[in-house]
Amino acid sequence: MTTLTRRNLMQAAAATGLAGAFGGRAAFAADEPLGITLVVPSPVGDVGWGHALAAGLEPVKTAFGDKVKVTVIENIAEGPDADRIMTKTVADGNKFLIAGSFGYQNGALQVARRDKKVTVLHASGFQVAPNFSPFAAKYFQGTYLLGMAAAAVSKTGKIGSVSAFAIPELITSINAFTLGAQAVKPDIEVSVVWVNSWFDPAKEQEAAKALMAQKCDVIFSNAQDTPSVVAACEEAGVYSFNLNSSMKKYAPKTYLGCVATDWSPFFKASVEAHFAGTFKGANAFLGVADKVVEVVDWNPDIPADTMAKIKELEAKIADGSFSPFTGPITKADGSEGVKAGTALSDGEIVAMNWHVKGVTTPLPK
Known about the structure:
- The protein is an alpha/beta fold.
- The protein has helices spanning about 5-15, 20, 50-65, 80-90, 105-115, 140-155, 170-185, 200-215, 230-235, 265-275, 305-320, 345-350; strands at about 1-5, 35-40, 70-75, 95-100, 120-125, 130-135, 160-165, 190-195, 220, 240-245, 255-260, 285, 295, 330, 335-340.
- The strands form three sheets. Strands 1-3-2-4-5-6-12 form a seven-stranded parallel sheet, sandwiched between helices. Strands 8-7-9-10-11-13 form a six-stranded mixed sheet, sandwiched between helices.
């Protein structure tokens, strides 16, 4: 696997033209391996979102061998740089693009529309085209369970979240976390600090400390690509958990668990469909049943009776007999969110733009 950063990519572009950074069109002739390019907004590192996406391509390399050539381009900000890089990598012959950030949507969609032979997977978006599939994880299935655990270990009745951006994917994660906590302690309160960044260690630590100052004794690091929140919580003796990949080594004592994602089943199926000429764009919303989402690294401090209830519900989530968004659910403004006895559809979940009662921080406008 080739890994490129924004810095060395732009240096190569300046010296030889951007095509040179990828080897040029001649290197991707029809009889050559399928060029798969993953573009992510932060460093891949050893934890976090970018790391989980890159890790999901390792089984693809194992499965397809010399039929594929994988390139990872990391630390690419959403905006013109990302659009240019995605456009050029496809122009240079790569026919499979994974656009690894919500803000890449418009540029990635234009790539798909210009070249119908390209397959594009886009993280966290909502647009669909014949050769363009958005994909997202049902994190809420795991955060509901960790909410139960959080409430069980909380002594203050106040828990918090350091969250990246106020997009539906992260709003649903917070809401499910809150509902799971309320299933154990109905009066629990949740505070949120939005840092408006996927990767800003200093701001994340500052946000975690602000939540601790509000007496939050469990903190959810919601889509942060660094272990800053988790490490700050360990230092302060506060429980924490996160999404995508395990950060337990940064908090061996106070790590509550991880809603881990394994994208390899989805990536492998998509590459296989590309080779077969059967790929059809669709909204891929994947969870526990798809073996994409799994809660790992449960902390032994979680009471045994709570853990038994968690495992019982985890099995029901896996077989589809329970959804965290089953009514009655009240919105933060006091209005009805979900009627009693009904459950939100996937479409309603991916469009969620409101908080549940118990989340005390208003959504940013």
